[in-house]
């Protein structure tokens, strides 16, 4: 989705998910901007994607650590008294 200043990265968050909307490189940029500007914009987009990758990797690491901790503790039991 483009606005008056051009396409941007948009993020939406719901209680259950995060939605990232990323612009695709467009022929418009290449047609109207100098080559150096396009090169810098593409490098900036790459850096944004690398930042998202780092956040995803960190989330995976936290999940794996929690799974490892649960496995180390063993099964959990609850005692229920029936009258």
Provide a descriptive summary of the structure in words.
It contains two helices and four strands. It is elongated, with a radius of gyration of 22 Å. The model has no long low-confidence stretch (mean pLDDT 81). The chain has a domain of 54 residues.
Topology:
Blueprint: E1 2-3, E2 6-7, E3 10-13, E4 18-21, H1 27-32, H2 35-73
Mean pLDDT: 81
**Structural class from helices and strands?**
alpha+beta
Strand content: 5-15%
Distance between the termini: 62 Å
Low-confidence stretches: none
Number of helices: 2
Give the H and E element order: EEEEHH
Strand order of the largest sheet: 1-2
Largest sheet: 2 strands, antiparallel
Kindly provide the radius of gyration, computed on alpha-carbon positions and rounded to a whole number of angstroms: 22 Å
Number of strand segments: 4
> What best-fitting shape do the alpha-carbon axes yield?
elongated
- In helices, the fraction of residues equals 40-55%
